[in-house]
Amino acid sequence: MKLCYFNDYRLGVIRDETVVDITDAMKDVPHRDSRDLIISLIDAWDTHKARVEKAAADGKGVALKNVRLRPPVPKPGNIVCMAVNYMEDGTLPQKPQINAFHKAATAIIGDGDTMVLPDVPATIFEGEAELALVIGRRASCVPQAQAMKHIFGYTCFIDGSARGLPPPGNVFFQMKSRDTFAPIGPWIVTADEIGDPQNLNITLTNNGQVMQKFNTNDMAHQIPRCIEWASSIHALEPGDILATGTNHRGLNAFMDGDKIELTVEKIGTLHIGVKDELKRTWARTTRSQHKDKGGEGPHTPQLTGKHAVK
Q1: Is residue 227 part of a domain?
Q2: Total number of domains constituting the chain
Q3: Which of 38, 75, 83, 232 is the one with CA 20 to 30 A from 285?
Q4: Nearest-CA neighbor of 150 among 16, 82, 240?
Q5: Which helix (DSSP H) or strand (DSSP E) does residue 288 occupy?
Q6: Domain of residue 55, residue span
Q7: 83 and 61 part of one domain
Q8: What DSSP string runs through 43-64?
Q9: Does 300 lie in the same domain as 270?
Q10: 51 Cβ partners below 8 Å, 6+ apart?
Q11: How confident is the model over 225-251, as pLDDT tens digits?
Q12: Is residue 133 part of a domain?
């Protein structure tokens, strides 16, 4: 099943190329406002699943092309992002230590929305293509053998980054948690529809050009281990998002006017735009291309605009 929000945060189920509004059928599910409904529904999924299926089957669908999709989890309690969690096409000499960081929940945007690049002296702005999982059951100190039972579903996730901000060492919060830096969507696909989340192709295009292309089988720490480790630090609650990391070799500069499409196999395609009022520019190269050309540093330097190094 595919669950989404659309228009004025109506809750819907995707059926073929249409969306069926199930908001009114779920009105007795406790929630403060429509943006919280999905979390309450996830939390009591076993109780409400049959009703959701019936409402989706009985309702009249509206063409997807005629609605505005919204973030499928507009107000997650936590966004946990795994850091350096891919073997980079076998180029890493050894498995990196497991690590993660938090991203602010207020950074969430959805399909068709715009990532806005702030006026800060970042050396580059990037967006990382990732598979994200949505927690379905509270997970606290969960062993790997039980971890997959705590997943409600999966969605696409772009981890926006403003890299190289001063001072050195003061990194993740100001790099990762900026407004609009957590695009998710276009919907949640429930876990029962994804047979093997460790074998999904991920492709990110920038203005139609393929920039990132990898498979989730290249994760250094697979999904059960990520849940085990994260839940050993703090509880993961229904509706929380855990992003599983990216292959950095294809990272590239996000610039004003870019049209980004992230496709995760069996899940869907997330579309976003990029806006930079300063019109800063970088070379249109990936990290691996920059390295192969003998470039200094992990990524191509800024070419023009405010904050460019003269």
Answers
A1: yes
A2: 2
A3: 83
A4: 240
A5: helix 287-292
A6: 2-70
A7: no
A8: HTHHHHHHHHHHHHHHSPPEEG
A9: yes
A10: 25, 26
A11: 999 999 999 999 999 999 999 999 999
A12: yes
- According to DSSP, residue 285 is labeled -
Query: Is 280 found in the same domain as 252?
Result: yes
3-state secondary structure of 41: helix
pTM value surpassing 0.85: yes
> Cα–Cα distance between 9 and 155 in angstroms, integer?
18
Please enumerate in sequence order all residues whose Cβ is within 8 A of that of 307, keeping only pairs 6 or more positions apart, or say none.
120, 121, 122, 278, 280
Burial of 34 (0-12, 13-18, 19+ CB in 10 A): middle
Residue keyed to tokens 């992990």: 298
What residues contact residue 297 under an 8 Å CB cut-off, 6+ apart? 123, 290
Q: Are 63 and 130 in the same domain?
A: no
Q: Is residue 309 part of a domain?
A: no
Q: Which CATH number fits the domain that encloses residue 164?
A: 3.90.850.10
Sign (positive or negative) of CA dihedral 292, 293, 298, 304: negative
Q: What is the DSSP secondary structure assignment for residue 252, as one 8-state letter?
A: B
Residues in the chain: 310
**Percent above pLDDT 90 for the chain:** 97
